[in-house]
Amino acid sequence: MAENTDRTPVSVFASPGRYVQGRGALGRLGTLMEGLGSRRPLVLTDDVVRGLTEQVLTGSFAQADLPLAFERFGGMPTSAEADRVSGVIDEGGHDAVIGLGGGTAIDTAKAAGDNAGVPWVSAATVASTDAPTSALSVVYTESGSFESYRFYSRNPALVVVDTQYVAEAPVRFLSAGVGDALATWIEARAVRRAHSPNMVGGLPTHAGSTLAELSWNLLWRSALPALEAVEKNLVTQDVEAIVEATTLLSGLGFESGGLAAAHAIHDGLTAVDQTHHFTHGEKVNIGSLTQLVLEGAPASEIDPFAEFTARVGLPTTLTEAGLGGADETVLDEVVRAAMAPSETIHNLAFEPTHRDVRDALRAVEGVGRRARERVGLGEPTPEDYT
User: Fold this and answer.
1) How is the cofactor bound (predicted)?
2) CATH number for the domain running over 19-168
């Protein structure tokens, strides 16, 4: 293909090398790593996930005649942590790094692998974010505030999601994954309308936008029965569908479809201490509601969305985030961070003002309270998500 040298916009689609999902998938990791040509991988994970998975991985790696080496993840996906882990990769002569667990360990493994010049693999034991498939990491400060997106020239070589571990994890993780994934179509359609760039430096492809919409449709169909199944640690077809929607389809959809205001509001919320107890997907749901209000979406769309996400167990009010009584200084800090020059809110088809965004964020409180009342959840409190 001829090189594009005239800055003409091109469409770009990105994806991991291979995606493997299902009950017992983690038991295949050794063979899959062998298939990638790795002979000395490093597994980055925290102590809890290591305790849950070490026996399975020991057998899996022994079957593939691979050494099993763990490195303890420090808990926060900072630049310093990625630098530390890349040093471990270099010192140990490792030829690949596996991020095992949730999105923070996986994002750190990507950054460390990029630093060290080795392939990276995502092995997810929860379905709380769509981080596993993408060619980017979300980098945070030590205090837990959003710092930046870090982009890579390639996606993970392999993504493995074991749905039995997903089903045995606290249901809040899967609920958060639903919140993160629901934003994918809300943002992708906004990006497409505006002819704005996606997350891999091109215009959205039809494939990226369509996968975002497919994720949305599966979530509305299967999220509630899937969450009921996970409450009982069951793996059902609804669980498999929701894991695919939150991990694969949302991952491909946000990266190749693009992000807009929902994730920018998430990033803004990380700037204040009151929201640090929220998961990524919980903050994103506040962002999705804010974007819908900001866009002037009809009540016939906003109200069912707020009701559905309340049933899913996601926050729909600022009160639940500890911001119900926040003064303008706190909300101004959230909005300033959400509207930073590098933020994805600028992918909208219009340029909202600081006041527009703050008012939309404030309006979410009433939207969420009415939704909670309609579904019988009662008054929200800050303790709902502590």
Assistant:
1) Binds 1 zinc ion per subunit.
2) 3.40.50.1970
